[in-house]
Design brief:
Layout (H helix, E strand, L loop, with lengths): L4 H11 L8 H32 L3 H4 L3 H26 L2 H25 L10 H24 L4 H19 L19 H24 L6 H20 L8 H47 L5 H4 L5 H10 L2 E10 L5 E10 L6 H10 L3 H19 L5 E6 L1 H4 L2 H8 L5 E5 L8 H13 L3 E7 L3 H10 L3 E4 L1 H4 L6 H16 L3 E4 L5 H10 L3 E2 L12 H5 L5 H14 L1
Amino acid sequence: MTDDPLAKTATDRARTPTKRARSAFEEQADQVVSVWAIALTLLTAGAVYLVARHRLDTVGQGYLAVPVVYTLAVASAALLAFLLAARAAIIADHRYRWLSVGFGTAGAIALAQGLAIADLTTIRLAPTPSGAAGLYLLWHAVLPVFVLGALMFPARRRIRSVAVGVFGVALVLTLLDPAWARLPRLVTAGGAFTATYDRVLLVLIVAQALALAAWLWTVRSRPSRPELWIGVGLLLVLLDLVVASGADRLLEATWWSSATLRMAQFGVPALGLLADNRRLLRLLQVHEQSLRERLEGELRPVLRPEVVAVGIDRDQVLHVIQERRVRPVFQPIYSLETGQLIAVEALARFDVVGPSPDRWFAAAQIAGLQVDLELTAARAALDTARDALPPDVAVSINVSPVTVVDDRFLSLVMEADDGLVIEVTEHDVVDDYVSLRDALGQLRAAGCRIAIDDAGAGFSSLRHIVRLEPDVIKLDMSLTRDIDADPVRRALARCLIDFAEQTDTVLIAEGVERLDELTALQELGAHAVQGYLLGRPEPLTDARLTSRPLPEPLRAAIGATTRRAR
Protein backbone atom coordinates (compact mmCIF):
# COMPACT_ATOMS: atom_id res chain seq x y z
CA MET A 1 0.00 0.00 0.00
CA THR A 2 1.44 3.37 -1.05
CA ASP A 3 0.35 6.83 0.00
CA ASP A 4 -1.96 8.53 -2.44
CA PRO A 5 -0.01 11.49 -3.90
CA LEU A 6 -3.18 13.45 -4.62
CA ALA A 7 -4.40 12.98 -1.07
CA LYS A 8 -1.01 14.20 0.17
CA THR A 9 -1.36 17.23 -2.06
CA ALA A 10 -4.71 18.10 -0.47
CA THR A 11 -3.23 17.70 3.03
CA ASP A 12 -0.21 19.86 2.26
CA ARG A 13 -2.48 22.46 0.71
CA ALA A 14 -4.64 22.63 3.82
CA ARG A 15 -1.56 23.18 5.99
CA THR A 16 -0.14 25.97 3.79
CA PRO A 17 -2.32 29.10 3.52
CA THR A 18 -2.55 30.48 0.01
CA LYS A 19 -1.85 34.14 -0.54
CA ARG A 20 -4.28 35.08 -3.24
CA ALA A 21 -3.11 38.19 -4.96
CA ARG A 22 -4.90 39.78 -7.83
CA SER A 23 -3.36 39.59 -11.27
CA ALA A 24 -0.68 42.07 -12.26
CA PHE A 25 -2.77 43.80 -14.92
CA GLU A 26 -5.53 44.47 -12.41
CA GLU A 27 -3.10 45.99 -9.90
CA GLN A 28 -1.51 48.11 -12.60
CA ALA A 29 -4.91 49.44 -13.69
CA ASP A 30 -5.75 50.42 -10.11
CA GLN A 31 -2.41 52.16 -9.69
CA VAL A 32 -2.83 54.12 -12.91
CA VAL A 33 -6.34 55.26 -11.97
CA SER A 34 -5.25 56.24 -8.46
CA VAL A 35 -2.22 58.18 -9.71
CA TRP A 36 -4.35 60.05 -12.24
CA ALA A 37 -6.94 60.89 -9.58
CA ILE A 38 -4.30 62.28 -7.24
CA ALA A 39 -2.57 64.18 -10.05
CA LEU A 40 -5.86 65.72 -11.17
CA THR A 41 -6.66 66.80 -7.62
CA LEU A 42 -3.25 68.38 -7.11
CA LEU A 43 -3.52 70.13 -10.48
CA THR A 44 -6.93 71.53 -9.51
CA ALA A 45 -5.62 72.68 -6.14
CA GLY A 46 -2.70 74.41 -7.85
CA ALA A 47 -4.97 76.15 -10.33
CA VAL A 48 -7.26 77.38 -7.55
CA TYR A 49 -4.23 78.61 -5.64
CA LEU A 50 -3.05 80.69 -8.60
CA VAL A 51 -6.52 82.13 -9.14
CA ALA A 52 -6.94 82.81 -5.44
CA ARG A 53 -3.62 84.58 -5.28
CA HIS A 54 -4.82 87.19 -7.76
CA ARG A 55 -8.61 87.24 -7.42
CA LEU A 56 -9.69 85.94 -4.01
CA ASP A 57 -7.33 87.64 -1.59
CA THR A 58 -10.04 89.75 -0.03
CA VAL A 59 -12.84 88.48 2.17
CA GLY A 60 -15.59 89.91 0.00
CA GLN A 61 -14.42 88.22 -3.18
CA GLY A 62 -13.66 84.99 -1.31
CA TYR A 63 -17.30 84.62 -0.38
CA LEU A 64 -18.19 84.10 -4.05
CA ALA A 65 -16.49 80.68 -4.18
CA VAL A 66 -17.78 79.36 -0.84
CA PRO A 67 -21.16 78.07 -2.09
CA VAL A 68 -19.54 76.23 -5.03
CA VAL A 69 -16.75 74.56 -3.08
CA TYR A 70 -18.79 73.54 -0.07
CA THR A 71 -21.88 72.47 -2.03
CA LEU A 72 -19.75 70.08 -4.08
CA ALA A 73 -17.97 68.85 -0.94
CA VAL A 74 -21.18 68.15 0.98
CA ALA A 75 -22.90 66.53 -2.02
CA SER A 76 -19.87 64.30 -2.63
CA ALA A 77 -19.74 63.36 1.07
CA ALA A 78 -23.40 62.33 0.99
CA LEU A 79 -22.86 60.26 -2.16
CA LEU A 80 -19.75 58.60 -0.72
CA ALA A 81 -21.52 57.77 2.54
CA PHE A 82 -24.41 56.22 0.59
CA LEU A 83 -22.10 54.11 -1.62
CA LEU A 84 -20.18 52.83 1.39
CA ALA A 85 -23.39 52.01 3.26
CA ALA A 86 -24.72 50.13 0.24
CA ARG A 87 -21.48 48.15 -0.06
CA ALA A 88 -21.55 47.33 3.63
CA ALA A 89 -25.11 46.01 3.30
CA ILE A 90 -24.30 43.90 0.24
CA ILE A 91 -21.06 42.24 1.36
CA ALA A 92 -21.68 42.46 5.15
CA ASP A 93 -18.35 44.22 5.80
CA HIS A 94 -18.65 46.26 9.01
CA ARG A 95 -15.61 48.37 8.12
CA TYR A 96 -17.62 50.10 5.42
CA ARG A 97 -20.37 50.89 7.94
CA TRP A 98 -17.83 52.78 10.06
CA LEU A 99 -16.48 54.60 7.02
CA SER A 100 -19.97 55.45 5.80
CA VAL A 101 -20.87 57.03 9.13
CA GLY A 102 -17.47 58.73 9.32
CA PHE A 103 -17.67 60.36 5.91
CA GLY A 104 -21.30 61.28 6.54
CA THR A 105 -20.40 62.96 9.85
CA ALA A 106 -17.50 64.79 8.19
CA GLY A 107 -19.88 65.97 5.46
CA ALA A 108 -22.33 67.31 8.03
CA ILE A 109 -19.59 69.29 9.74
CA ALA A 110 -18.40 70.52 6.33
CA LEU A 111 -21.92 71.83 5.70
CA ALA A 112 -21.86 73.66 9.03
CA GLN A 113 -18.49 75.23 8.23
CA GLY A 114 -19.62 76.30 4.77
CA LEU A 115 -22.68 77.99 6.26
CA ALA A 116 -20.58 79.62 8.96
CA ILE A 117 -18.04 81.04 6.51
CA ALA A 118 -20.55 82.26 3.96
CA ASP A 119 -22.84 83.58 6.72
CA LEU A 120 -25.88 82.48 4.70
CA THR A 121 -28.22 81.82 7.64
CA THR A 122 -30.22 84.13 9.85
CA ILE A 123 -29.31 82.31 13.05
CA ARG A 124 -25.68 83.42 12.60
CA LEU A 125 -23.81 80.13 13.08
CA ALA A 126 -20.35 80.55 14.63
CA PRO A 127 -20.41 84.35 14.75
CA THR A 128 -16.64 84.59 15.19
CA PRO A 129 -13.83 83.34 12.92
CA SER A 130 -12.70 81.03 15.73
CA GLY A 131 -15.94 79.10 15.37
CA ALA A 132 -15.37 78.54 11.63
CA ALA A 133 -11.78 77.45 12.28
CA GLY A 134 -12.96 75.16 15.07
CA LEU A 135 -15.41 73.49 12.69
CA TYR A 136 -12.55 72.79 10.29
CA LEU A 137 -10.50 71.12 13.04
CA LEU A 138 -13.51 69.13 14.25
CA TRP A 139 -14.21 68.04 10.70
CA HIS A 140 -10.72 66.59 10.33
CA ALA A 141 -10.80 64.88 13.72
CA VAL A 142 -13.65 62.67 12.50
CA LEU A 143 -11.98 60.42 9.93
CA PRO A 144 -8.97 59.26 12.02
CA VAL A 145 -11.37 58.18 14.75
CA PHE A 146 -13.71 56.31 12.40
CA VAL A 147 -10.93 54.73 10.33
CA LEU A 148 -9.23 53.35 13.42
CA GLY A 149 -12.62 52.27 14.76
CA ALA A 150 -13.31 50.43 11.49
CA LEU A 151 -10.02 48.55 11.85
CA MET A 152 -10.13 47.89 15.59
CA PHE A 153 -13.85 47.50 16.37
CA PRO A 154 -15.56 46.72 13.03
CA ALA A 155 -18.55 44.90 14.53
CA ARG A 156 -19.04 47.11 17.62
CA ARG A 157 -22.08 49.14 16.69
CA ARG A 158 -22.39 50.68 20.16
CA ILE A 159 -18.89 52.18 20.01
CA ARG A 160 -19.72 53.66 16.61
CA SER A 161 -22.89 55.22 18.01
CA VAL A 162 -20.97 56.71 20.94
CA ALA A 163 -18.43 58.25 18.52
CA VAL A 164 -21.25 59.83 16.50
CA GLY A 165 -22.80 61.21 19.68
CA VAL A 166 -19.51 62.73 20.85
CA PHE A 167 -18.95 64.49 17.55
CA GLY A 168 -22.57 65.66 17.53
CA VAL A 169 -22.14 67.32 20.92
CA ALA A 170 -18.83 68.85 19.82
CA LEU A 171 -20.53 70.24 16.72
CA VAL A 172 -23.24 71.89 18.77
CA LEU A 173 -20.69 73.43 21.15
CA THR A 174 -18.62 74.74 18.26
CA LEU A 175 -21.66 76.28 16.59
CA LEU A 176 -22.36 78.28 19.74
CA ASP A 177 -20.46 81.43 20.60
CA PRO A 178 -16.90 80.21 21.37
CA ALA A 179 -16.66 82.59 24.32
CA TRP A 180 -19.83 81.14 25.85
CA ALA A 181 -18.64 77.58 25.19
CA ARG A 182 -15.22 78.46 26.66
CA LEU A 183 -13.39 77.30 23.53
CA PRO A 184 -9.82 78.53 23.00
CA ARG A 185 -9.30 81.31 20.50
CA LEU A 186 -8.20 79.91 17.15
CA VAL A 187 -8.27 83.10 15.03
CA THR A 188 -7.15 86.56 16.06
CA ALA A 189 -9.20 89.70 15.55
CA GLY A 190 -7.27 90.38 12.37
CA GLY A 191 -8.12 86.93 10.92
CA ALA A 192 -4.73 85.25 11.53
CA PHE A 193 -4.54 81.74 12.96
CA THR A 194 -3.24 81.44 16.53
CA ALA A 195 -0.56 79.12 17.90
CA THR A 196 -3.31 76.96 19.43
CA TYR A 197 -4.81 76.41 15.98
CA ASP A 198 -1.40 75.46 14.57
CA ARG A 199 -0.72 72.98 17.38
CA VAL A 200 -4.10 71.27 17.01
CA LEU A 201 -3.59 71.16 13.25
CA LEU A 202 -0.22 69.43 13.72
CA VAL A 203 -1.83 66.81 15.98
CA LEU A 204 -4.51 66.18 13.34
CA ILE A 205 -1.84 65.76 10.63
CA VAL A 206 -0.13 63.08 12.71
CA ALA A 207 -3.45 61.37 13.50
CA GLN A 208 -4.51 61.36 9.85
CA ALA A 209 -1.13 60.01 8.76
CA LEU A 210 -1.47 57.17 11.30
CA ALA A 211 -5.01 56.41 10.09
CA LEU A 212 -3.85 56.31 6.47
CA ALA A 213 -0.87 54.09 7.34
CA ALA A 214 -3.09 51.72 9.36
CA TRP A 215 -5.56 51.45 6.50
CA LEU A 216 -2.87 50.77 3.89
CA TRP A 217 -1.19 48.22 6.17
CA THR A 218 -4.47 46.39 6.73
CA VAL A 219 -5.34 46.09 3.03
CA ARG A 220 -1.77 45.60 1.78
CA SER A 221 -2.02 41.91 0.86
CA ARG A 222 -4.84 42.02 -1.68
CA PRO A 223 -6.52 45.43 -1.82
CA SER A 224 -9.81 45.70 -3.66
CA ARG A 225 -10.70 48.72 -5.76
CA PRO A 226 -12.98 50.21 -3.05
CA GLU A 227 -10.18 49.83 -0.50
CA LEU A 228 -7.80 51.62 -2.85
CA TRP A 229 -10.26 54.46 -3.38
CA ILE A 230 -10.73 54.84 0.36
CA GLY A 231 -6.95 55.08 0.63
CA VAL A 232 -6.94 57.81 -2.02
CA GLY A 233 -9.61 59.73 -0.10
CA LEU A 234 -7.64 59.48 3.15
CA LEU A 235 -4.52 60.66 1.34
CA LEU A 236 -6.39 63.70 0.04
CA VAL A 237 -7.55 64.49 3.59
CA LEU A 238 -3.93 64.38 4.70
CA LEU A 239 -2.92 66.68 1.83
CA ASP A 240 -5.72 69.06 2.84
CA LEU A 241 -4.27 69.30 6.35
CA VAL A 242 -0.72 69.73 5.09
CA VAL A 243 -1.73 72.53 2.70
CA ALA A 244 -3.88 74.15 5.41
CA SER A 245 -0.86 74.25 7.71
CA GLY A 246 0.72 76.71 5.27
CA ALA A 247 -2.17 79.20 5.46
CA ASP A 248 -1.76 82.22 7.74
CA ARG A 249 -5.38 83.37 7.81
CA LEU A 250 -8.90 82.55 6.64
CA LEU A 251 -9.82 83.02 2.97
CA GLU A 252 -6.30 83.66 1.71
CA ALA A 253 -4.84 81.92 -1.39
CA THR A 254 -3.32 78.90 0.39
CA TRP A 255 -6.50 78.44 2.40
CA TRP A 256 -8.48 78.19 -0.85
CA SER A 257 -6.12 75.51 -2.17
CA SER A 258 -6.84 73.59 1.02
CA ALA A 259 -10.58 74.14 0.50
CA THR A 260 -10.31 72.58 -2.97
CA LEU A 261 -8.78 69.49 -1.43
CA ARG A 262 -11.70 69.38 1.01
CA MET A 263 -13.97 69.03 -1.98
CA ALA A 264 -11.72 66.43 -3.61
CA GLN A 265 -11.36 64.23 -0.52
CA PHE A 266 -15.04 63.34 -0.87
CA GLY A 267 -15.48 63.68 -4.62
CA VAL A 268 -12.55 61.56 -5.86
CA PRO A 269 -13.34 58.37 -3.87
CA ALA A 270 -17.07 58.83 -4.60
CA LEU A 271 -16.39 58.94 -8.35
CA GLY A 272 -14.02 55.97 -7.98
CA LEU A 273 -16.67 53.88 -6.25
CA LEU A 274 -19.22 54.84 -8.90
CA ALA A 275 -16.79 53.77 -11.63
CA ASP A 276 -16.14 50.49 -9.81
CA ASN A 277 -19.87 49.82 -9.53
CA ARG A 278 -20.19 50.43 -13.26
CA ARG A 279 -17.33 48.01 -13.92
CA LEU A 280 -18.95 45.33 -11.75
CA LEU A 281 -22.28 45.75 -13.53
CA ARG A 282 -20.51 45.40 -16.87
CA LEU A 283 -18.73 42.22 -15.72
CA LEU A 284 -21.98 40.79 -14.41
CA GLN A 285 -23.60 41.52 -17.76
CA VAL A 286 -20.78 39.75 -19.60
CA HIS A 287 -20.99 36.84 -17.16
CA GLU A 288 -24.76 36.62 -17.60
CA GLN A 289 -24.37 36.58 -21.38
CA SER A 290 -21.70 33.88 -21.13
CA LEU A 291 -23.92 31.72 -18.93
CA ARG A 292 -26.86 32.26 -21.27
CA GLU A 293 -24.82 31.15 -24.26
CA ARG A 294 -23.59 28.08 -22.38
CA LEU A 295 -27.10 27.20 -21.28
CA GLU A 296 -28.37 27.53 -24.83
CA GLY A 297 -25.52 25.30 -25.95
CA GLU A 298 -26.47 22.71 -23.33
CA LEU A 299 -30.10 22.79 -24.42
CA ARG A 300 -29.32 22.44 -28.13
CA PRO A 301 -29.14 18.93 -29.55
CA VAL A 302 -25.65 17.56 -28.92
CA LEU A 303 -23.58 16.88 -32.02
CA ARG A 304 -24.53 13.32 -32.88
CA PRO A 305 -21.82 10.64 -32.64
CA GLU A 306 -22.60 9.47 -36.18
CA VAL A 307 -21.58 12.90 -37.45
CA VAL A 308 -18.27 12.81 -35.56
CA ALA A 309 -17.54 9.22 -36.49
CA VAL A 310 -18.24 9.45 -40.20
CA GLY A 311 -16.05 7.08 -42.23
CA ILE A 312 -15.50 4.52 -39.42
CA ASP A 313 -17.63 1.37 -39.42
CA ARG A 314 -18.24 -1.27 -36.76
CA ASP A 315 -15.78 -3.78 -38.21
CA GLN A 316 -12.96 -1.25 -37.99
CA VAL A 317 -13.74 -0.54 -34.34
CA LEU A 318 -13.95 -4.24 -33.58
CA HIS A 319 -10.60 -4.81 -35.27
CA VAL A 320 -8.95 -2.11 -33.13
CA ILE A 321 -10.35 -3.72 -29.98
CA GLN A 322 -9.42 -7.29 -30.89
CA GLU A 323 -5.93 -6.40 -32.08
CA ARG A 324 -5.42 -3.94 -29.22
CA ARG A 325 -4.37 -1.19 -31.57
CA VAL A 326 -4.63 1.33 -28.75
CA ARG A 327 -1.47 2.76 -27.22
CA PRO A 328 -1.40 5.10 -24.23
CA VAL A 329 0.39 8.41 -23.92
CA PHE A 330 0.73 10.24 -20.63
CA GLN A 331 0.63 13.94 -19.74
CA PRO A 332 2.32 15.01 -16.48
CA ILE A 333 0.49 16.73 -13.61
CA TYR A 334 2.59 18.86 -11.25
CA SER A 335 1.90 20.17 -7.75
CA LEU A 336 1.86 23.96 -7.46
CA GLU A 337 3.01 23.71 -3.86
CA THR A 338 6.11 21.54 -4.23
CA GLY A 339 6.66 21.52 -7.99
CA GLN A 340 6.84 17.72 -7.90
CA LEU A 341 5.28 15.32 -10.40
CA ILE A 342 2.26 13.88 -8.59
CA ALA A 343 0.27 12.16 -11.37
CA VAL A 344 0.01 11.49 -15.08
CA GLU A 345 -3.14 11.41 -17.17
CA ALA A 346 -3.41 8.51 -19.60
CA LEU A 347 -4.74 9.42 -23.05
CA ALA A 348 -5.54 7.01 -25.86
CA ARG A 349 -3.87 7.04 -29.28
CA PHE A 350 -4.70 4.62 -32.09
CA ASP A 351 -2.21 2.82 -34.31
CA VAL A 352 -4.37 3.61 -37.30
CA VAL A 353 -3.60 6.39 -39.73
CA GLY A 354 -6.31 9.01 -40.13
CA PRO A 355 -9.16 9.39 -37.65
CA SER A 356 -8.60 11.22 -34.36
CA PRO A 357 -9.25 9.51 -30.98
CA ASP A 358 -12.58 11.27 -30.43
CA ARG A 359 -13.85 9.93 -33.75
CA TRP A 360 -12.92 6.37 -32.76
CA PHE A 361 -14.76 6.63 -29.44
CA ALA A 362 -17.79 8.15 -31.19
CA ALA A 363 -17.79 5.27 -33.67
CA ALA A 364 -17.57 2.77 -30.81
CA GLN A 365 -20.61 4.38 -29.18
CA ILE A 366 -22.61 4.04 -32.38
CA ALA A 367 -21.54 0.42 -32.78
CA GLY A 368 -22.42 -0.48 -29.18
CA LEU A 369 -18.74 -1.04 -28.38
CA GLN A 370 -18.07 2.02 -26.24
CA VAL A 371 -17.41 0.07 -23.04
CA ASP A 372 -15.20 -2.44 -24.86
CA LEU A 373 -13.03 0.26 -26.43
CA GLU A 374 -12.71 2.21 -23.18
CA LEU A 375 -11.75 -0.97 -21.32
CA THR A 376 -9.12 -1.70 -23.97
CA ALA A 377 -7.67 1.79 -23.62
CA ALA A 378 -7.73 1.60 -19.80
CA ARG A 379 -6.02 -1.80 -19.74
CA ALA A 380 -3.27 -0.58 -22.08
CA ALA A 381 -2.67 2.46 -19.84
CA LEU A 382 -2.57 0.43 -16.62
CA ASP A 383 -0.26 -2.23 -18.08
CA THR A 384 2.19 0.44 -19.21
CA ALA A 385 2.06 2.51 -16.02
CA ARG A 386 2.42 -0.48 -13.70
CA ASP A 387 6.09 -0.97 -14.56
CA ALA A 388 7.11 2.58 -15.52
CA LEU A 389 5.67 4.84 -12.81
CA PRO A 390 7.34 5.53 -9.45
CA PRO A 391 5.19 4.53 -6.46
CA ASP A 392 4.53 8.16 -5.49
CA VAL A 393 3.02 9.11 -8.88
CA ALA A 394 -0.66 8.35 -9.55
CA VAL A 395 -2.11 7.41 -12.92
CA SER A 396 -5.41 8.90 -14.10
CA ILE A 397 -7.65 7.28 -16.71
CA ASN A 398 -10.75 8.64 -18.48
CA VAL A 399 -13.95 6.61 -18.63
CA SER A 400 -17.59 7.40 -19.30
CA PRO A 401 -20.33 6.75 -16.72
CA VAL A 402 -21.57 3.74 -18.68
CA THR A 403 -18.15 2.11 -18.31
CA VAL A 404 -17.93 2.91 -14.61
CA VAL A 405 -21.05 0.86 -13.85
CA ASP A 406 -19.81 -2.12 -15.89
CA ASP A 407 -18.60 -5.04 -13.73
CA ARG A 408 -15.65 -5.64 -16.06
CA PHE A 409 -14.23 -2.24 -15.22
CA LEU A 410 -14.33 -2.97 -11.49
CA SER A 411 -12.49 -6.23 -12.13
CA LEU A 412 -9.85 -4.36 -14.13
CA VAL A 413 -9.37 -1.81 -11.37
CA MET A 414 -9.00 -4.52 -8.73
CA GLU A 415 -5.89 -5.71 -10.59
CA ALA A 416 -4.27 -2.25 -10.47
CA ASP A 417 -2.13 -0.82 -7.68
CA ASP A 418 -3.36 1.85 -5.30
CA GLY A 419 -3.20 5.46 -6.45
CA LEU A 420 -5.46 5.07 -9.48
CA VAL A 421 -7.61 8.10 -10.33
CA ILE A 422 -10.84 7.57 -12.27
CA GLU A 423 -11.83 10.60 -14.35
CA VAL A 424 -15.55 10.55 -15.07
CA THR A 425 -16.19 12.42 -18.30
CA GLU A 426 -19.14 14.84 -18.35
CA HIS A 427 -20.15 14.50 -21.98
CA ASP A 428 -22.57 11.58 -21.59
CA VAL A 429 -25.99 12.01 -20.04
CA VAL A 430 -26.40 10.17 -16.73
CA ASP A 431 -29.87 8.71 -16.30
CA ASP A 432 -29.22 6.75 -13.09
CA TYR A 433 -27.07 8.55 -10.55
CA VAL A 434 -27.88 5.96 -7.88
CA SER A 435 -26.18 3.16 -9.81
CA LEU A 436 -23.28 5.43 -10.71
CA ARG A 437 -22.73 6.44 -7.07
CA ASP A 438 -22.84 2.76 -6.00
CA ALA A 439 -20.23 1.84 -8.62
CA LEU A 440 -18.00 4.75 -7.58
CA GLY A 441 -18.33 3.64 -3.96
CA GLN A 442 -16.97 0.21 -4.91
CA LEU A 443 -14.09 1.85 -6.77
CA ARG A 444 -13.26 4.00 -3.74
CA ALA A 445 -13.29 0.87 -1.59
CA ALA A 446 -10.76 -0.60 -4.01
CA GLY A 447 -8.39 2.32 -3.36
CA CYS A 448 -9.32 4.61 -6.26
CA ARG A 449 -9.97 8.33 -6.17
CA ILE A 450 -12.74 9.87 -8.25
CA ALA A 451 -12.21 12.92 -10.44
CA ILE A 452 -14.69 15.01 -12.42
CA ASP A 453 -13.22 16.00 -15.76
CA ASP A 454 -13.80 19.29 -17.62
CA ALA A 455 -15.30 21.11 -14.63
CA GLY A 456 -16.65 24.49 -15.67
CA ALA A 457 -17.13 23.56 -19.32
CA GLY A 458 -20.88 23.11 -18.85
CA PHE A 459 -23.67 22.50 -16.40
CA SER A 460 -23.27 18.71 -16.64
CA SER A 461 -19.88 18.84 -14.91
CA LEU A 462 -21.32 20.96 -12.10
CA ARG A 463 -24.14 18.45 -11.70
CA HIS A 464 -21.55 15.66 -11.51
CA ILE A 465 -19.67 17.54 -8.78
CA VAL A 466 -22.79 17.99 -6.66
CA ARG A 467 -24.13 14.46 -7.14
CA LEU A 468 -20.90 12.43 -7.09
CA GLU A 469 -18.82 14.28 -4.44
CA PRO A 470 -15.47 13.75 -6.19
CA ASP A 471 -12.01 13.68 -4.63
CA VAL A 472 -10.48 15.60 -7.53
CA ILE A 473 -11.88 18.40 -9.71
CA LYS A 474 -10.22 19.10 -13.04
CA LEU A 475 -10.70 22.67 -14.19
CA ASP A 476 -11.50 22.72 -17.90
CA MET A 477 -9.19 24.50 -20.29
CA SER A 478 -12.06 26.77 -21.36
CA LEU A 479 -11.63 28.48 -17.96
CA THR A 480 -7.85 28.17 -17.83
CA ARG A 481 -7.27 29.79 -21.21
CA ASP A 482 -6.39 33.51 -20.78
CA ILE A 483 -7.36 33.38 -17.11
CA ASP A 484 -4.68 35.98 -16.38
CA ALA A 485 -6.46 38.58 -18.53
CA ASP A 486 -10.14 37.63 -18.13
CA PRO A 487 -11.79 38.64 -14.83
CA VAL A 488 -14.87 36.50 -15.54
CA ARG A 489 -12.83 33.31 -16.00
CA ARG A 490 -10.83 34.21 -12.92
CA ALA A 491 -13.97 34.72 -10.83
CA LEU A 492 -15.45 31.38 -11.92
CA ALA A 493 -12.17 29.57 -11.29
CA ARG A 494 -11.89 31.15 -7.85
CA CYS A 495 -15.38 29.87 -6.98
CA LEU A 496 -14.39 26.31 -7.88
CA ILE A 497 -11.08 26.65 -6.02
CA ASP A 498 -12.86 27.90 -2.90
CA PHE A 499 -15.30 25.00 -3.19
CA ALA A 500 -12.40 22.56 -3.49
CA GLU A 501 -10.68 23.93 -0.40
CA GLN A 502 -13.84 23.85 1.68
CA THR A 503 -14.56 20.23 0.69
CA ASP A 504 -10.95 18.95 0.97
CA THR A 505 -10.87 18.34 -2.77
CA VAL A 506 -7.82 18.60 -5.01
CA LEU A 507 -8.26 21.00 -7.93
CA ILE A 508 -6.16 20.43 -11.06
CA ALA A 509 -6.14 23.07 -13.81
CA GLU A 510 -5.92 21.65 -17.33
CA GLY A 511 -4.72 23.26 -20.54
CA VAL A 512 -2.03 25.56 -19.10
CA GLU A 513 -0.07 26.85 -22.09
CA ARG A 514 1.37 30.21 -20.97
CA LEU A 515 3.44 31.32 -17.99
CA ASP A 516 0.96 34.10 -17.15
CA GLU A 517 -1.82 31.51 -16.90
CA LEU A 518 0.33 29.41 -14.56
CA THR A 519 1.07 32.43 -12.37
CA ALA A 520 -2.60 33.44 -12.21
CA LEU A 521 -3.67 29.91 -11.22
CA GLN A 522 -0.99 29.79 -8.56
CA GLU A 523 -2.18 33.11 -7.13
CA LEU A 524 -5.80 31.93 -7.16
CA GLY A 525 -4.86 28.83 -5.17
CA ALA A 526 -5.07 25.94 -7.66
CA HIS A 527 -3.46 22.80 -6.25
CA ALA A 528 -1.94 21.30 -9.40
CA VAL A 529 -1.60 21.97 -13.12
CA GLN A 530 -1.11 20.22 -16.43
CA GLY A 531 -0.79 21.45 -19.98
CA TYR A 532 1.56 21.96 -22.90
CA LEU A 533 3.59 24.50 -20.93
CA LEU A 534 4.61 21.73 -18.52
CA GLY A 535 4.64 18.72 -20.81
CA ARG A 536 2.86 17.25 -23.80
CA PRO A 537 1.30 13.77 -23.86
CA GLU A 538 4.02 11.27 -24.73
CA PRO A 539 4.82 7.57 -24.38
CA LEU A 540 5.89 6.56 -20.92
CA THR A 541 9.23 4.94 -20.16
CA ASP A 542 10.87 4.56 -16.80
CA ALA A 543 14.10 6.20 -17.95
CA ARG A 544 12.38 9.21 -19.44
CA LEU A 545 10.17 9.81 -16.45
CA THR A 546 12.82 9.45 -13.77
CA SER A 547 15.23 11.71 -15.65
CA ARG A 548 12.64 14.39 -16.47
CA PRO A 549 13.78 17.76 -15.03
CA LEU A 550 11.31 20.11 -13.42
CA PRO A 551 9.91 22.36 -16.18
CA GLU A 552 11.53 25.80 -16.11
CA PRO A 553 8.23 27.76 -15.90
CA LEU A 554 7.13 25.74 -12.89
CA ARG A 555 10.56 25.98 -11.24
CA ALA A 556 10.50 29.77 -11.65
CA ALA A 557 6.95 30.06 -10.28
CA ILE A 558 7.71 27.88 -7.25
CA GLY A 559 10.90 29.85 -6.62
CA ALA A 560 9.03 33.14 -6.73
CA THR A 561 6.49 31.84 -4.22
CA THR A 562 9.26 30.70 -1.89
CA ARG A 563 10.96 34.09 -2.04
CA ARG A 564 7.67 35.89 -1.27
CA ALA A 565 7.05 33.58 1.69
CA ARG A 566 10.44 34.48 3.14
